[in-house]
């Protein structure tokens, strides 16, 4: 059933993450080029037609492409489990 009191509007936002490869001992030493990825998240908001009140929806989850860490000379591959 269509709710006559509210209009629904979709909102989207682009989020960015940067994966940095740094030396574990020397925190400022970059050992490989960083990788920047973007993803789009969305939500549906409701706006009360009479009062203009906005009820914000829940943001979707960002879906990131899987990235394999590069091989770096004189460094061992990181031993990290996927979360």
Features:
single chain, 83 residues, mainly beta, 3-stranded antiparallel sheet, 3 strands, rod-shaped
Describe this structure in words.
With about 80 residues, the chain is an all-beta fold. About 0% of the residues lie in helices and about 45% in strands. The protein contains no helices and three strands. A three-stranded antiparallel beta sheet has the order 1-2-3, with no helix packed on it. The two termini are about 40 Å apart. The model has no long low-confidence stretch (mean pLDDT about 90).
Low-confidence stretches: none
Shape by Cα distribution: rod-shaped
Helix vs. strand class: mainly beta
Radius of gyration (CA) equals 21 Å
Strand content: over 45%
- Measured as a percent range, the helix fraction is under 10%
Number of strands: 3
**Tally of alpha and pi helices:** 0
What order do the strands of the largest sheet run in, or round the barrel if closed? 1-2-3
Note the main sheet: 3 strands, antiparallel
Give the ordered list of helices and strands: EEE
Distance between the termini: 40 Å
**What is the average of the pLDDT values?**
88
């Amino acid at each position: 059933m269509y709710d006559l009191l509210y209009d629904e509007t979709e909102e989207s936002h682009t989020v960015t993450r940067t994966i940095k490869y740094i030396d574990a001992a020397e925190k400022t030493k970059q050992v490989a080029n960083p990788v920047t990825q973007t993803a789009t998240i969305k939500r549906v908001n409701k706006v009360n037609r009479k009062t203009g009140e906005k009820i914000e929806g829940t943001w979707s989850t960002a879906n990131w492409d899987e990235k394999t860490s590069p091989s770096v000379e004189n460094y061992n591959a990181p031993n990290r489990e996927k979360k």
